[in-house]
Design brief:
Elements: H1 11-16, E1 19-34, E2 39-55, E3 59-63, H2 70-78, E4 85-90, H3 94-105, H4 113-126, H5 133-142, E5 143-146, H6 150-153, H7 160-170, H8 176-189, H9 206-218, E6 224-228, H10 236-253, E7 256-261, H11 264-270, E8 273-278, E9 281-287, H12 288-293, H13 298-306, H14 317-330, H15 362-371, E10 379-386, E11 389-394, H16 397-408, H17 415-419, E12 420-426, E13 429-434, E14 443-446, E15 449-451, H18 454-457
Parallel strand pairs: 3-7, 3-8, 5-6, 6-7
Antiparallel strand pairs: 1-2, 1-4, 8-9, 9-15, 10-11, 11-13, 12-13, 14-15
Bound molecules: adenosine-5'-triphosphate, iron/sulfur cluster (SF4) and magnesium ion.
Length: 464
């Protein structure tokens, strides 16, 4: 990869300036509709209880595999989507943020009426889905979004002057010659110029189109930008130019970024702090260098193994082969369905170091037996009382006995087998009960370093 500047990391300096954004317990569930009547049959849990801060003047990188909820979270933060639960707070002074956190930890029924009023005041004053019209308009000015696909986000029938000038017009900031002059300034700021004013998007390269998107995003002089995979569609050399441009703009204009990418190397170079997401939740969050050099979560570890850093010369053919192997070994299996996420730790179905208390459930028993080609032959029904407690019914008693033998076999060991606390056979059915567990909480295991892995929260850590 062509070199691009590494940002000077000084999270403490950013912290002194307070936060632009505080995300608290945000969820976004998309309804799944089915049948003739289009009834709601379930929900895609795209974002499921996310909490983090974006310090003023910093870049927070948001990384994770495809479908883990990055874009949905970016849209929630930019106000393009409203949350199902939780909230995104903007411009909240540190003292108020501390008060909010204090009040939120109290169960609703234990809050005094003064505390309930205080919480309501903070919510109405700073939560972006509760702002009044005027405040919301101010937020729309202050928070801009740049998407991955510049081509589809730029109107193909509009000239660059109109595309970049549109926000200025919409907010009554400029018109006529003054608008043209401002657009020229914005184009120059992103490395384009007056000669590009009267051209259409298709007359530009991918990198230039992304520059136009950035110019448009800068038009209203925002404080904060959500950059959703802004360079993923670009060639590597062009990617570096755009990333450098974003760095320069941040330095000059004091911008704050939420930088979304599936590419760990890019995130590492761009970010002061990194949030790693898995299936709608935060797996790990820490200052950038700490996340990469003192990784805590096995999922981050697996992502790193699948994305060797630039320094390791990933372009070298041998390394590329290793990277492929690493991906197969460390990130085996596919991402589970976000409409039916695994219990306990969501990563347990793919985690190479999972233990018995990670949240193994009845679905895992059926899945693992089937994947191993062993048989739960003749399994006709699974009657779940809870995700951890079910009766497996078989077509005949001998088949139920065979399944029991297979599940009990002395050769079987491993975290899932260890999690089974009851296995009983009766007639044509087998009762199976596993050790139940709720969500694994995200906890601070070192200053500013949070992870949600039982190995740290319950077992004192692990070494990769
Ligand atoms: N409007 C929608 N309706 C229903 N489901 C949706 C909608 N938008 C996203 N999803 C689902 O929500 C989950 C998260 O999607 P999202 O686009 O936020 O992921 P992502 O991390 O940005 O992925 P990618 O890296 O591919 O861009 C996915 O399972 C996706 O299919
Ligand atoms: S809690 Fe930790 S060890 Fe258990 S599955 Fe999750 S990441 Fe792996
Ligand atoms: Mg996305």
């Amino acid at each position: 990869m062509t070199a691009f500047e590494t940002r000077p990391t000084d999270p403490s300096a950013a912290a002194d300036r307070g936060d632009v954004i505080n995300v608290r317990g945000v969820r976004k569930y998309y309804p799944i509709k089915g049948g003739v009547l289009q009834r709601v049959t379930g929900h895609v849990k795209a974002v499921d209880g996310v909490t983090f801060d974006i310090p003023r003047g910093s870049t927070v990188g948001l990384v994770g595999e495809s479908g883990c909820g990055k874009t949905t979270l970016g849209r929630l933060i930019s106000g393009l989507l409203d949350p199902t639960d939780g909230g995104v707070y903007f411009g909240m002074p540190a003292a108020e943020r501390r008060r909010l956190d204090e009040l939120m930890t109290l169960p609703a029924e234990e809050r005094t009426s003064q505390q309930a009023t205080d919480l309501q005041t903070l919510t109405d004053g700073y939560r972006i889905d509760r702002l009044n019209r005027e405040q919301r308009r101010a937020y729309r000015r202050n928070c801009q979004v740049v998407f991955q696909d510049a081509f589809s986000s730029l109107n193909p029938r509009q000239l660059v002057r109109d595309i970049v000038g549109r926000p200025l017009k919409a907010f009554g900031e400029a018109s006529g010659d003054a608008l043209t002059q401002r657009v020229v300034e914005l184009l120059e700021q992103v490395g384009l110029g007056r000669q590009h004013l009267f051209r259409y998007p298709h007359q530009f390269s991918g990198g230039q189109r992304q520059r136009i998107s950035i110019a448009r995003a800068l038009a209203l002089d925002p404080e904060f930008m959500v950059l959703d995979e802004p360079t993923s569609a670009l060639d590597v050399s062009v990617q570096a130019q755009i990333l450098n441009l974003l760095h320069e703009l941040q330095r000059e204009l004091g911008l704050t970024y939420l930088f979304i990418s599936h590419d760990l190397n890019v995130v590492r170079h761009m970010s002061d702090e990194v949030v790693v997401m898995y299936l709608g939740q935060v797996a790990e969050a820490a200052p950038s260098e700490r996340l990469f050099t003192a990784t805590k979560h096995p999922y981050t570890e697996a992502l790193l193994a699948a994305n060797p850093s630039d320094d390791e010369d990933a372009e070298d053919a041998e390394d590329a082969e290793d990277a492929e192997d690493a991906e197969v070994i460390r990130l085996a299996g596919s991402v589970p369905d976000p409409a039916n996420p695994p219990q306990g730790c969501r990563f347990h179905t793919r985690c190479p170091v999972a233990v018995a208390s990670c949240g193994w459930e009845v679905d895992d028993v059926v899945r693992v037996a089937t994947e191993e080609g062993a048989s739960l032959e003749g399994l006709s029904d699974v009657e779940r009382r809870t995700p951890f407690d079910a009766t497996l019914r078989f077509e005949s008693e001998p088949l139920a006995q065979a399944a029991l033998r297979m599940l009990r076999s002395d050769g079987r060991s491993g975290p899932m087998a260890d999690a089974i606390i009851r296995l009983e056979h009766s007639g044509d059915s087998v009762d199976v009960v596993l050790r139940p567990r709720g969500d694994v909480p995200l906890v601070e295991v070192e200053p500013q370093h949070r992870t949600s892995c039982v190995l740290f929260t319950e077992y004192g850590g692990y070494t990769a």
